[in-house]
Structure formats: C-alpha cells, structure tokens
Batch of 2 targets.
Target 1
Amino acid sequence: MARIIGGLTTSHIPSIGNAVPREEELSQDPYWQPFFAGYGKAREWLREADPDVAIVIYNDHGLNFFLDKLPTFAIGAAFEYQHSDEGWGIPTMPPFQGDPELSWHIINSLVADEFDIVSCQEMLVDHGFTVPMSLFWKNNSYGRVRTIPVCINTVQHPLPSPARCFKLGQAIARAVESYDKDLKVVILGTGGMSHQLDGERAGFINKKFDLMCMDKIVNEPEALTQLSIHELVRQAGAQGSEFILWLAMRGALSGNVKMVHSNYHIAISNTATGLMVLENGA
Ligand code: DHB
Ligand code: FE
C-alpha cells in the first residue's frame, strides 16, 4: 500500500527562485546565509527517505487560474507539469513528472468523500510549487519523484477555512492509504509564514503568531483549525493566509508525528520564512 512517510513545509517567495541557482555563491551572503542554512537537514532527510511521490499543496498566484475562474480546490492529473513564469522573472525549471493514475485515484476518493474538487489534465505550475521543489531537491534533482499538484485558493475570498483545509488533508491521506501500490509519499505544504504584500499593512510580519503556529502544528493542529480565515488574515497578514496550505499538509499526517527539523527566519523579501520536516508515525 502507499504510505505517507512525512510532511514538509516551506515558504515559496519568488526571490528565492532567483537565488537558488546561486546558492553556493550566496552561502556567505549575510542576507541569504541564515535562510539557506536551514535546508541542509531537510535535504538530508529527503535523501534518506527517498520518496517516490510528492503531493504538493500550494496556491496558484494567477498563472494557471485567474480571478475570472478560481477553483477552491484543484488537483493535477497530468503526465507532466510545466513551469511557467507568472511575472517574477524566475528562471524556468525543467518539467515535473506527474502520476496520473495516483492523481485519478485521489480525485475519485476525494469526490466520494464529498470534496468536489476540480480535476486538471493540463496544469501549469508557478513559484508556489517550483520554489519549494528547487529548495528541497538541490540542483533540480527531483527527476525520479512523481508529483501531484494540489491547489487551494488563497487569492480571492471566500477562502476555505483552516478546518476545511485540515479535513481535505485527512481525505487525501485516506486516498493515499487506499492506493494499492507500494509507494513512499511525502506531502508538502508551501507558502507562509506571516506576510502582507499590499494595502495599509504591507510589510506586516507577526513573529509571535508564526512561532505559535510552528509549535502547535506538530502536536496540537486542531487548535489551529479553530481559527477563522479573517482571524488568520488579521494575525498573519493577507498573504499569510497561505498557512491554510500547511494545515492541509498536517491533516494528511497521523496524530503521531515527529518534528525532525525546523527553521524560522525574518525576512526574505516581505515574508517571514518557515521550514519544517515532520516524520509521520503509524
Ligand atoms: C512574496 C511572498 C509570496 O508568498 C508570494 O507568493 C509572492 C511574493 C514576497 O514576499 O515577495
Ligand atoms: Fe505566495
């Protein structure tokens, strides 16, 4: 049977996409050093774990979906996902391998489980997907890993609640665990932590709230699912609402997770960056 062996979270700021190809050169740079320093342990864990599949929970930022047609939940079911630039000038990454058979299994299972998601047989992926892949698989070494993009709307209100996203994660776990192939699956939650890119509170960051979220998501995620979207936006900033993607990831793990590694750093661009590696227990 397929097994979810762990969950990883990371921020997905576009400027990281430009910095990643220059990581060696920037490793002495005081701006980038504390950020990149966090990723060694995560890469090491992934090398050891050697997953077959990465389910990537992220938000599309106007590349694949725009304000005219914006699904709350959408899942890729393609053989391959091309990266394309939605306006940040990030170097384009090699395509990502899909796993349509597993995608359709998850889609069937989710719809049977009352999640009426959009299925996408063609899908472009933006920085919300590609930046985490480039951080976790150094030098774009993700070729062996098949990917399943799961998009959650964090762009146009109404956004799904933290509780709903957590339940989506639980439903994804039920789907994976009922898949009749011996696969090791990791689940990524991208985006966050606190940030607001526009309006009166542009530049807003809330370290106390972020650290509380990183603490509670390990063993008390249900406490975070009590938050309303509006409270989340108030505490984490308008784009900090991306934390619902982390909660969807956490919903797919068991009650028994081990925190292997975490890193928190203020700031890259306008965003407090957070990284976590959670190993999934039985
Ligand atoms: C930034 C952060 C994001 O999450 C994003 O999607 C775009 C930009 C930033 O801090 O620059
Ligand atoms: Fe974002």
Target 2
Amino acid sequence: MLIAGNWKMNGDPNTLGEFGKMIARAPEAAHNGVTLIVCPPAILTAKCAERATVSPLEIGGQDCHPEPNGAHTGDIAAEMLAACGATTVIVGHSERRADHGEDDALVAAKATAAQRAGLRAIVCVGETEAERDAGNAETVVNGQLAGSLPETLDPARLVVAYEPVWAIGTGRTPSTDDVAAMHAAIRKTLDARFPGAAVPILYGGSVKPSNAAELLAVPEVGGALIGGASLKADDFLAIALAAVKN
Ligand code: PGA
C-alpha cells in the first residue's frame, strides 16, 4: 500500500510542527509494505527531505515542468525536486488540470519528465460530477489514461491515482461498489498497456480516518492520495495505520 499526502498550497517553514510528528510516528506505519509519502509545497521540499532522512517518510512534489531547466518562470523541474531529496511527484492533479488548463498531452510529458529525473510519477485521473451523472465516468477516465500514460513510461516507477473531481475536498466519496468498478476498469487498461506490471492504483477524494479502512479494503485499491487529512499528523497516521491492516 502507498499512502501519499498532498498538502496543496498549505504550509510554510514556520508551520512544520505537524510534519515533525509525522516523522516521529512514520515507523509505526511504514512497514508491512506501506510506503508513506508527503508532498509539501515546492518551497518546503528540501527542508522536509532533510528532516525526513531519519525517517521512512518519503517526500514528493505536487507538479513539475516537462523540461529539465530553462526559461520557464515560476516552474519547477523534476530534476530540481530530485536534487532536493524528493522521490516522487504528482502530475495531472485535477486542480492543475482545471486551474492551469493542463491537458493529457502535458500530463504525459510531465510523467515522462518525472521518470527521466528518477522520480516515481503519481498520475491523477478522475471524472467530474456531470460526467458521472451522464454515465461517462469510465469513458472519461479511460481517455485520460490513454492520453496521460505514454507506453514509454517505466511501470515500476508509475502510480495511478483515481480521484473523482466531485469527491475532492467535499467530504463526499463514491460508494465502495463504484470505487471497485472504476479501479477494475483502470486495472484492465493498465494491464493492456503495461502487461505483467503491478502499477498501484490509489483512491483519492475525501479520504479520512473514518472511511480509510473501508476504501482501502476495496479490490484493486493500492493506497490513497490524501489532501485535507494529510495536514494533521493524527489523521494522516490513522489512515496509514488503516493501510497496514489491509
Ligand atoms: P482531499 O483531496 O483529500 O482533501 O479530498 C484529495 C486530493 O486532492 O488529492
């Protein structure tokens, strides 16, 4: 199981108290095959990675640019994240797709860049509420997978996160049957694209301690991508401990 926390645009160098608790308690959860990752804002990558050297907690980025360097004001290269101690980067999060107009081709380029830099790429996909209501959820997600996952990716350093857009930050989650159906569909697509590879498929969207055990027990759910609940050490660790039990 892989448990990844996405802090989004939260946290600064003066507010790392919760992170200290996560480092101290990570060994409780980071065993029995559970990988724990925290993805702070880019300004904290190096600081968090330095503090986490004593801990099994890994550090990730929330986004990267496709190029390794150059005239791209405000952007961060995957190589920079790697040089600062990151092991992982999230690409194609729905907030990037919506707020910054990122399309599948750009997400594919970012996933490729992540692996070029030696990072694990967590590629996010997920339908909007309107798409689900129209009965198009699987078609939309399959289209995102087709466009965002070039066949040249190394499946050993690839993770897919299914995050229904309408479940992110809303407190709402799909039924476990709906999660199971979508994860089975994603697995079928991944098996066709990367035969024989066991690419983990995370569920994301309003995961919290009270629903983690149920969601993590769904077939083909290989972990969770957690937003709000990853800001509090107690909540993040409780979710990670639910993963240990699975
Ligand atoms: P949430 O966010 O846990 O706050 O719903 C999930 C995500 O966006 O990865």
